[in-house]
Structures are given as C-alpha cells and as structure tokens.
Amino acid sequence: MKLLTLCLLFIGIFFTQSSQAARYNSDCHGNSCMQYGWNVQQMGGHYQSNTQCVNGGCSQGGWQTYDNAGYQVSVHCYQGGCFRAGWSGQVFTNGMTYYEQGLCWGGNCLRNGWRIQTNWGIQDVVCLNGDCARFGWESRRVNGVSRTYCKNGDCFRFGWVTDVWGSRAQSCSL
Structural domain of residue 44, as residue ranges? Predict the structure, then answer.
C-alpha cells in the first residue's frame, strides 16, 4: 500500500510539473519584426535567441536565428514570400544539419496558419481569431503545444508572449 501511494504521488508530481508552461517573451527589433527580426527570452529561464531578417526582410527574404542552446536556423522564403508561399530552412546543431519546410494554409499564413515539417515531425499552427498578426497563434506538435499572444494587438510591431507545454519546440521558426 505504501509503495502504491508513493507511485501515485510520483505520478501526480510528474504530471503536475509537466503540465506547467514555460513562458517566452519576444520583442521586435526596431518596432518591426518583419523588417528587422526579433529576440526571444525565456522568462525565469536561461534560453534566449536572436533573429535577424535577411534579403529585404523576414516576409520576403527570410531570417537567421542563433540561440544559446547551440541552434542556428537559416530560413529562405519561397517565391511570393514566406507568409504567402512558405519557406524552407536549415537547422544546424551539434555538427548536424536538419531541414524544415513551412507551408501556408490557403496561401496566407497570417490568416489561416501554416504547417512546419521537420526531421522532428510535423507542427501545425492555426491563427487565433483568424489573424495571427493581431491575436497570435496556437501550435501543436507530437510532443507539446504552445499558444502565442500578441503584445498590444500587433505581434510584428510589439512582439509576443508564448506559453509552451511539453518540450520546447526544436525549431526557432515563428
């Protein structure tokens, strides 16, 4: 009976801890994430990343992200732009290269959401209230879920806050 009680207590603690969210704060460079990029900082934690737009801006050219966990991400927009046509990316970590592909639902990522396919699996993203730029988005993958909320009603000017349940996403993409 004591062993059963200890096991149930352990399971209860495990599920309580695993259901708690990690929170990440994102701020736009120069009040324009789409033109200059953004920083991400884990609130109460150590994770941080810096994203810089390339080739004319994040929505048309792409972006590069470097983080303190050893990941480097390089994203290039497809013809028509990242948030209309989608993107391809490479993730570099521990001497390995992984690939990702982002495809917009219905030709408009910022209204309909997108799907990211990587070596780690599939991540589906849907816009909150049909407008990712104003309200944020929810992301689901096999090992967790995250919800992103825009600051001051404009994610790509003021930034966003993301709550992540499960393990941290392996991609530094939006």
Answer: 2-166
